[in-house]
Amino acid sequence: MESAIIYIIFFVVIISLSFIRKVPTNTVLIIDRHSHYLKTKRRGFYFFNPATDKITTEIAKRHITKQYIDNFETHDGYIARIAFTVEYHAENIEAVLQALASARRSVDDVMNGAIYWAARNLSLSDFKNTSIALMNEARPILISESGELEVKIDQFYINNITPIPSSAHVPVFRPHTSSYSLGPIQMYK
After folding, report:
1. Which domains occur in the chain, in start order?
2. How far apart are the C-alpha atoms of 83 and 131, rounded to whole Å?
3. CA atoms within a 13 Å half-sphere pointing along the CA-CB vector of 165
4. pLDDT tens digits, residue range 90-141?
5. What pTM, to 2 d.p., does this model score?
């Protein structure tokens, strides 16, 4: 009986610890619950439920390397699954938070949006065998849009491009408002 109680206590402690996360110094996490903004967490510990919560944006003074993969439509109507990596940082975290709130966009939307607009400007044959054309098209868009949100791009490269068969019906990425399509990123008050 006592050993059963010890096992139960041990199990409860382990489960509880898996829900507690730590935010490092000079880092801010933006957390969504069920695809809606939940909270912005700064340095310290917080409760995180992996079943319902998702860290949608990490902003830090240190360099953050993040890999993205999504489906994008090209100028000629084809769809490609594009995997890319971006390394970024923020020199002023508060300025980034204000810009993100004002623009009502996430860092992920900016990164994916740059690839979206670059792919829309190229045909699949332009970057089917090499990623250089896509990188050259996406880099200025990425630097411009992330710069408007006070995020500095350190590195950017395309990992993989896989054409999707036209018979496959897959969802494609669509960005929120974009400075590339509408002039400067729309800032709201």
Report:
1. 1-60 (no CATH), 61-184 (3.30.479.30)
2. 11
3. 2
4. 999 999 988 888 877 788 888 999 999 999 999 988 877 778 999 999 999 9
5. 0.78
